[in-house]
Amino acid sequence: MLCMLNRIVLIGRLTKDPELRYTPSGAAVVSFRLAVERNFKNSDGEREADFIDVIAWRQLAENVANYMKKGRMVAVDGRLQTRSYENKEGQKVKVAEVVAENVRFLDRGKEQGDDIHINDSDLPF
User: Fold this and answer.
1) Which superkingdom is the protein from (predicted)?
2) Domain residues of the chain, as ranges?
3) Which of the four pLDDT bands, split at 50, 70 and 90, describes residue 122?
4) Which of 45, 82, 85, 98 is the one with CA 20 to 30 A from 5?
């Protein structure tokens, strides 16, 4: 039997603060975008980045919203999901996004002017 696999690991920086919402049933969902630098330079000698949309659900969503801010370097482990919807103009829009199963800090941030030294084992996720 053939086994299928859908696994993505990304390391990048948040392009803005995560946006937390709740579904009508009360489930937390957070969305954020990661800037992931490419491993090679373009013809001008500059590195380009891919901007990848990520979502997380429930407790992980709340933890991401509470602890992660714009500019933070994070690692995301998850799966690729595609979906489609109809926009206000009646056009079908396809979306590809990473559904995070695990998110970790990879740098130290500043909160209220103080350095924070957090190991991922100190966080509730």
Assistant:
1) Bacteria
2) 8-38+47-108
3) very low
4) 85
Segment 52-64, tens digit of pLDDT: 999 999 999 999 9
Look up tokens 């103080």; give the residue. 114
Residue 17: beta bridge partners?
Answer: none
Q: Which tokens hold the place of 49? A: 């980045």
Per-residue pLDDT, averaged over 71-79, amounts to: 94
Residue 112: pLDDT band with limits 50, 70, 90: very low
Closest CA to 102 of 52, 70, 63, 69: 63
Strands 92-105 and 47-57: parallel
Query: CATH topology for 8-38+47-108?
Result: OB fold (Dihydrolipoamide Acetyltransferase, E2P) (2.40.50)
In the chain, what percentage of residues exceed pLDDT 70? 86
- Gap between the Cα atoms of 125 and 109, Å rounded: 17
Question: Tell me, what DSSP letter sits at residue 24?
Answer: T
Residues in the chain: 125
Percent helix, percent strand, percent coil in the chain, to nearest 5: 10, 55, 35
